[in-house]
Request: fold
Amino acid sequence: MITPLEIENKRFRKALNGYNSTDVDDFLEGLTRDYEKLYKQVTESQDKIEELKKSLVHYQDIENTLQSTLMMAQKASDEVKDVAQKQADQIIKDAETRARESTLGLQTEIINKSQELEELKKQFDVYKARMESLLISQLELIKEINRED
Reply:
């Protein structure tokens, strides 16, 4: 690409019946100014494009990092959820086992207490029978004493 300085420094040879050198110089000066503006704009635009490309790469890196972080967070969340579910299942299983054991223990205790109650009833019946027998013998003795009188 031709630079504004090259346009400004360009010299034309003079020839017979050639162009008016003042007109050519004025035209070249105007062209140089306009071209210089355009050249600066293009250069600035290219610089801006490079900056934007760098920014784009930077933001793409950030996006990739965020996506990676999000995926890791999702994975960690899933793992925590799985562990929590397993713990909950184990707690329920343990509670059911303790409830069964407790129920069996209570049933055994009820059976034992029922057997103790039956044993006490039998002992009471034996005691009652002995007391009745003793009372009868005491009544007989009293009757015997009353007859002797």
